[in-house]
Amino acid sequence: MARLLVLIALAFAALAPARAEETLRVGDQRGNARALMEAAGVLDGLPYRLEWSEFPAAAPLLEALNAGAIDAGGVGDAPFTFAAAAGVPVKAFLAFRNRQDGLAILVRPDSAIRSVADLRAKRIATNRGSIGHQVVLAALEEAGLPADSVQFRFLPPADAKLALTSGAVDAWSTWEPYTSAAELAGLVRVVRDGNGITPGLSYAVANDTALKTKRALLADYAARLAKARAWALTDPGPYAAAWSKLIGLPEAVPLRWFGRAQYRTVPIDESVITDEQRIIDLYVRAGLIPASRAPRAEVILDAGFSDALAVMR
């Protein structure tokens, strides 16, 4: 009996660390945070379990955050803003900025469209509520045109590309890696990119529950992700090679994308809050977010993780 009790005690002792081990459940889009962090080698020695879930786009990732199926994930500023306006209990805890060469309104090389003004009454394919939608709205404002001066055709990127090349639409507003792939293939010409009219923000976001109960884990994850971003900024080649192998596109595509995007981690400071508010206000003016439901930027951005950037100093 004594021997049996010892064995039972040992079994429970062996189970205790596993039960005590915390888990951070992170949503990812293929080729993004997980591929970057693995390529950078920053996941060694994790003091918790990191459980990845892959999503095809930001919208289902944000739905999973809303449902509590994951704790955190990476998304662009546009889907994040719409989710917050829809009442999803999510906040950004880490921000990234990049140049906007790859966020662009594209036309066929032989198109007569040469400027944003030429887009008046034209058909533009993009995803509803995406950064592609955002850059069209911003470009129209810059040109002094109302949001309804173009005809939107809301299509996913693969369908939008086919619509452009077949002539079913006049322009396609999209993002990376679609822009680089189409440019390298000689299929498109850029009419207007996002530089100067969009802030180039993306975020690591978490739901309210994780921000309260897993804050230390999120801070560690943020520090490792920031370190990986710094590594890729120094030399985009290794990450481009890993990304190319994972996604199956030529290495020239991510090299063009990463080389010109210059992704960098930034603290959630007044400049980020100001730019996020600009995005919110743009969607309100365009009638995409009712003013009564528009969030305030400072409410949906958590500035308490700035110490995670210490790894970069």
Description:
This protein has two domains: 25-97 and 200-312, Periplasmic binding protein-like II (D-Maltodextrin-Binding Protein, domain 2); 104-193, D-Maltodextrin-Binding Protein, domain 2, CATH 3.40.190. The chain is 45% helix and 19% strand. It contains 13 helices and eleven strands. The radius of gyration is 22 Å and the shape is globular.
Second rung of CATH, namely the architecture of the largest domain: 3-Layer(aba) Sandwich
Uncertain segments are 1-20
Helix content: 40-55%
Strand order of the largest sheet: 2-1-3-10-4-11
- Listing every helix as H and every strand as E from the N terminus to the C terminus, the arrangement reads HEHEHEHEEEHEHEHEEHHHHEHH
* Dominant shape: globular
Number of helices: 13
Number of beta-strand segments: 11
Provide the residue-averaged pLDDT.
Answer: 91
CATH superfamily of the largest domain: Periplasmic binding protein-like II
Under CATH at level 1, the class of the largest domain stands as Alpha Beta
The Rg value, from CA coordinates, equals 22 Å
Sheet with the most strands, sense and barrel status: 6 strands, mixed
Instruction: Estimate nothing, just give the exact number of structural domains.
Output: 2
- The share of residues in extended strands comes to 15-25%
Question: Which fold name is given in CATH as the topology of the largest domain?
Answer: D-Maltodextrin-Binding Protein, domain 2
Structural class: alpha/beta
Domain Solute-binding protein family 3/N-terminal: 23-235
Pfam families: NMT1
Signal peptide: 1-20
Organism: Methylorubrum salsuginis
